[in-house]
Design a protein that fits this description.
five-stranded parallel β-sheet; single chain; 5 strands; 40% helix
């Protein structure tokens, strides 16, 4: 369970003071776009001692602190399934001409027993490849396993757990195939901690977003590219 005496400054899973600035110093990105559902839009529940900034907004803030000229566009809309994200957000994302793009989706698909894993794969892959072709490095996500939320009814938990794990594993395989910058949170030590989730049973709380931000920034810090490197598009 979450120790409510913790704050973001003392939480061992969160960023240490000065860590983000060191990791992101001289990062190359100047145009950051976010595509996705509520995880992208940001619906985490506030928690005393933790930043109120949602995950994607936190990433943008940390990137901007290191590069004040960074432009940021968040297209995330709560409730969308993968094909809806693709249909409504890819075109404006490409129009923004990003050099870094976060693509997160499939969670709403996996909440349903009618989850079509192959279709989600196709929709995510289409967005990833289009953004990479346009010159962006692409971030993908394996989400925390929300089936651990205490607000999920017990009889729903096993099926949801299986689908969320399948979505995560398939997204990781897509990341390997397409060379994205992948953040895998599903097997994080706190992924099954019920204290990480909001009371609505579908989203994380501010601690989960702070931890997700820390993990993402640490991975970004290992994937900085020289400016004007011809081998962009998420490739080493």
């Amino acid at each position: 369970m979450t120790d409510h005496r913790l704050t973001e400054d003392t939480d061992p899973y969160c960023l240490k003071p000065g860590e983000s600035a060191e990791l992101l110093a001289d990062h190359p990105w100047r145009r950051f776009v976010v595509l996705g559902d509520s995880v992208a839009e940001g619906l985490c529940e506030p928690l005393d001692g933790y930043s109120k900034l949602q995950w994607a907004d936190r990433l943008a803030a940390e990137l901007t602190a290191a590069a004040p000229q960074l432009e940021y566009l968040n297209l995330g809309v709560s409730g969308l399934r993968a094909h809806e994200i693709h249909a409504t957000q890819l075109e404006p994302a490409l129009g923004f001409q990003p050099d870094l793009a976060l693509v997160v989706g499939g969670g709403n698909d996996a909440f349903s027993a009618r989850y079509d894993a192959d279709r989600v794969d196709r929709e995510l892959a289409a967005m990833i490849t289009a953004l990479q072709t346009a010159g962006a490095d692409v971030l993908t996500l394996g989400m925390f396993d929300v089936s651990a939320s205490p607000a999920i009814q017990g009889w729903l938990r096993p099926g949801l757990h299986q689908r969320m794990r399948e979505l995560s594993e398939r997204t990781r395989k897509l990341a390997e195939q397409h060379g994205t910058i992948h953040v895998h949170l599903t097997t994080h030590p706190l992924s099954t901690d019920p204290g990480l989730y909001s009371s609505d049973g579908r989203h994380g709380n501010a601690r989960s977003d702070a931890i997700a931000a820390a993990e993402t920034i640490r991975i970004l810090g290992t994937r900085k590219y020289p400016r004007n490197n011809s081998a962009r598009g998420g490739q080493e």
